[in-house]
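dumping the sequnces here before i forget
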Amino acid sequence: MFESAETGHKIDKKTFDAQVPGLREDLLNAQYDLLQNGKFSVIIVIGGVDGAGKSETVSVLTEWMDPRHIQTHAFFEPSDEERERPCMWRFWRVLPPRGKIGILYGAWHTAPIVGRVMGNLKSADLDQAIEEIRHFEKMLSDEGALILKFWFHLSRQQQEKRLKELQQDPRTRWRVTDNDWKRFKNYDKFRKVSEYFLRQTSAAKAPWLVVEGLDHRYRSMTAGKLLLQAMRDRLDEKPVKALLDKIPPMLPQLDGKDILTTLSKARVMDKNKYEKELEKWQGRLNIITRHPGFRNISVVLLFEGQDAAGKGGAIRRVMGALDARIYQGVPIASPTEEERAQPYLWRFWRHLPRSGRFVIFDRSWYGRVLVERVEGFCSENDWGRAYAEINDFELQLVRNKTALVKFWLQIDKDEQLKRFKEREKTAFKRFKITAEDWRNREKWDQYHSAVCDMVDRTSTAIAPWNLIAADNKYAARIEVLKSVVKSIENALQK
Amino acid sequence: MFESAETGHKIDKKTFDAQVPGLREDLLNAQYDLLQNGKFSVIIVIGGVDGAGKSETVSVLTEWMDPRHIQTHAFFEPSDEERERPCMWRFWRVLPPRGKIGILYGAWHTAPIVGRVMGNLKSADLDQAIEEIRHFEKMLSDEGALILKFWFHLSRQQQEKRLKELQQDPRTRWRVTDNDWKRFKNYDKFRKVSEYFLRQTSAAKAPWLVVEGLDHRYRSMTAGKLLLQAMRDRLDEKPVKALLDKIPPMLPQLDGKDILTTLSKARVMDKNKYEKELEKWQGRLNIITRHPGFRNISVVLLFEGQDAAGKGGAIRRVMGALDARIYQGVPIASPTEEERAQPYLWRFWRHLPRSGRFVIFDRSWYGRVLVERVEGFCSENDWGRAYAEINDFELQLVRNKTALVKFWLQIDKDEQLKRFKEREKTAFKRFKITAEDWRNREKWDQYHSAVCDMVDRTSTAIAPWNLIAADNKYAARIEVLKSVVKSIENALQK
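..and the predicted 3d for all of it:
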């Protein structure tokens, strides 16, 4: 879910300077309207990676609004008074009353995340804490509180760079402590735990808003706009889409960057090189399925991508490496009558492999949030809840020692056109191009944002998306084979 | 939550024979309407105590309806096919399609409960399993399934009696195995774990329906009527009150018994005996507060009861035993302006005691589900969600080493009238009786059912209600003191 906050979002000074005065005025007006309305409180929770600008953003927000009606609280070690009461007592003490804004820096999310990263909490303990937080936040929002949770994120490279910069500047050197570097060593674990925690504690009425923290202008303006939007919606009594649980509001589009537009192009690979690499990786894949441990795991591969992105070709190269007795290919088209009489995921559950077997899905359960969403084949509520359902489903697979590898093959619009035309010209490829393909192409932009949402919401630590730049077919196929081999190797090591 | 299913519910043969033919006809009609409608499936989950008539009820339901459109599945040890897939696969395999009814005997609830009772699962593991079940059932109901979960209950005494009866009858002797008796030894633990599990996995759209299993006629008819009602509501497209999450539908009133009408009368106690007992228990209470461990725990007492039930008198006898420096009495009346600007529970959180201290609430957070519910001071949604919020709150108290003791003092309507009149006659008691008391009295029956609901939903293994028959003031006060002493003793042993 952090992918979109690692694309290098930036806003230039000119745009920023031009927009901030208006934003400040709107925020102040919203703050005074809240004071007058007096029907709800605003609770802003601040979390995220060290060095991603948490305290700076608190300062900016306080500066932009009237600080007399904002209460800011930071939580460090509990006092003895606090230790003698239930652990949530310290937060109850400082809840903002209706009409006011409270900013909580390092709130109830800190202890569970840090505890899990440091190994003091087991996975089930974390889930217990998550459940309690969910109840607490639900209670707050049922009591009318408007809750916004900001998570300021930096990629590993960005955080390292940022800490070094702070350290080199004499004015900020004091801010980087040994503890910060110690925590940096745990970056990957912290990212993994936070990702899970954020996903599990994001609710429609208490969403986590993941904001890239690299550029201070982008960060402040995104936070300010999100806060303004949320306050205005509530003050103007816009209905909240409570059904779309777990789906945070979209971040404002400030610079047009996203995970697909910033995906690097595939490297060029000629046929010669390709054939050598193909032999090498197909061989490795074949050998790994004869590993004694392979009998205890199973493999599920799924391929998604634009029409003509090369899914079929990639799948054939995988199958080519395998003993035909151990895999099953499952092309996903319209559901059968029997399947339509069952819950959506039933048609995929029925194909799950036994141990020691592969199942390869050509298109998959992600149809729910791609084609079914874009074409309106199911209601907004149905595709909206699908993200969480899919995450649950995949968690069950991975827990059951399944190596789950998910591929999105990405080509650009020109490349697709080229391939479509080629297909129309070549006799044995003509069956592969239909009127529907041309129709889908007209909805390119809608599919584009559905894919970004899909990756944001379902690329999890245990089941990440492999985004494959597929404009060079050869390079794409080799990358697919490599990822399959590596995922199986990982699963065997567990 | 099992209290209401331990009152000895029974239906006589005549009533049963008169009502069953109509019920069967209605059930069959509903079943055929479902088949024709074809828009949803009905999933019936069967769980409960051994000997409480689980399989008998399955047989009865199957007999009453057309067995060709009911699929019954019982789950024992998983097969090797099942073991190689995620553990929910075995349930996905047998989900009934839309239009049909599936009865699942020993479904996904069994493994977590048994695992926890046997000590194979930690408390946090159980919470994790609960969370997964909740997601699964939410998905099923979002996909349109109608889910009913029956829990057939017997009290410890009832179960013992039932097992012995089965064993003595040569026709049923084979049904009682050593395993049953082994499980019976774990009755208390099983009750405690099940109570927690049921409370946490009861949702508006997948409620647990706790049915007393003692009498086969009561049991079958309750199950049949609940099933019929749920199917009819859905077929006739009655709106489900989804907001009232966690509140199961009311059981049909078949015999007028409830926890208050079946509460035994207080034993008679004369003044002499009372004074001796008072001295004894006040002494014990005083001494226990000087126990070295007492510095590490805290005590929260709360008193609820009808007007003139003797709350104030009981509280004074508790206070009389304590050093005035270690307790604080908190009478709960209308909230202050500051309190009204905060979430409902805030006014109670602010009074929580430090370690080594008592706080005694004269009326409490239960006002939400008693006076505020009956008088309409808050919306149905607000008091509806309060049960779960209160359970969460009390769990936090108990986890924090707080001895929480909850009293409901119960008098009958005549006794109240007598006391009201007495108060009006006695000069120094006249301030205790107001017009409001007389008004409340007119709503006696509404309060009666609000109290039954409250106990059903908030009498938990960790924070049970003490129902005190208070028609004899002396006996009631001694019982209160005893319960306080015993609860503190328990808390000190943890």
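The CA atoms of residues 91 and 136 of chain B lie 11 Å apart.
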